[in-house]
Write a structure and sequence with these properties.
This protein is mainly alpha-helical. It has a domain of 65 residues: 434 Repressor (Amino-terminal Domain) (Orthogonal Bundle). It contains five helices and no strands. Helix 1 crosses helix 4 and helix 2 packs across helix 3.
Length: 102
């Protein structure tokens, strides 16, 4: 059983850790913390403070992170991996043959 949060609506440490991992995933995928902050609709300073542990976060931030990675809130808090995107399809032209008609 998980320890109770310190205040109503708060997050326990394992949930914070899971959410930080999802934010790092978004950062790897999108390249900048500014883009990550835009995706989760929170200021960059709030996102970075949550990542480095100076901001304990809240359920509104948790919901935004879950939505940004395509998970339900429960799955995000439980540490589920975000759904994988299908690889981009690249159309490859057929190789040209030397010689005769193709």
């Amino acid at each position: 059983m998980m320890a109770a949060p310190l205040y109503p609506g708060g997050l326990v440490e394992i949930q914070r850790s899971n959410l930080r991992a999802l934010l790092r995933h978004l950062h790897r995928e999108h390249g900048t913390w500014t883009k990550v902050a835009h995706l989760v609709s929170f200021r960059r300073a709030v996102v970075l403070a949550f990542c480095d542990g100076t901001n304990p976060g809240n359920m509104a931030l948790a919901r935004s992170i879950a939505r940004a990675v395509g998970l339900s809130l429960d799955d995000a808090l439980a540490g589920k991996a975000p759904p994988r995107k299908a690889p981009a399809l690249v159309l490859v032209s057929s190789p040209r043959r030397k010689g005769g008609a193709s």
